[in-house]
Specification:
Helices cover about 75% and strands about 0% of the residues. It is built from 5 helices and no strands. Helix 1 packs antiparallel against helix 2, helix 1 crosses helix 3 and helix 2 packs antiparallel against helix 5. The longest helix has about 30 residues.
């Protein structure tokens, strides 16, 4: 374990939080990659709006992953965002390939956003029960951003499917 930077948590709690943070880091990185897969491959009505939106959501989700990784370091752990770790530990279903329609991509991506949001809400509870309100707060902020972006992305299904 690395040096702990001002967390004030006992080792047992810090280790539990490091594990929880790294698990969510894998999910958030996988969600980022799913968003890029969607961004690169969607076609059809509503393309440009969704394409541009995904650039914006990628920036926000990268900030979430950075905040999670930095909290791991603060607690004395090592963030693990390597591709092999993400592939092994993410709870997300593999993103579908072979689809191109905006509607199909928006639905597939929104489903994954909702799964990550649910996992983050569970992490809020676990961190709070462990007495780590700072980590709970980090997960709360991440959950708000993911929920809002799920709504932004998902709102495109109704728009594009009417055309």
């Amino acid at each position: 374990m690395r040096e702990r930077y001002a967390s004030g948590l006992d080792d047992k709690t810090a280790n539990k939080m490091i594990e929880l943070l790294n698990a969510n880091l894998a999910n958030v990185i996988d969600l980022t990659l799913a968003g890029k897969q969607c961004h690169w491959n969607l076609q059809g009505a509503g393309f440009i709006g969704v394409h541009q939106l995904l650039d914006e959501t990628t920036v926000r989700i990268l900030e979430i992953s950075d905040n999670i990784a930095e909290r791991v370091v603060i607690l004395g752990g090592e963030p693990n965002g390597l591709a092999a770790r993400v592939a092994k530990d993410s709870i997300l279903a593999p993103y579908p390939t072979g689809i191109t329609s905006v509607v199909d991509h928006v639905q597939a991506l929104t489903e994954r956003y909702k799964v990550v949001a649910e996992t983050l809400r569970e992490a809020i509870k676990l961190a709070g029960k462990a007495g780590d309100e700072d980590t709970a707060d980090l997960f709360t902020e991440a959950s708000r951003i993911i929920d809002k972006d799920a709504w932004f992305i998902g709102a495109n299904v109704a728009v594009t499917s009417k055309k």
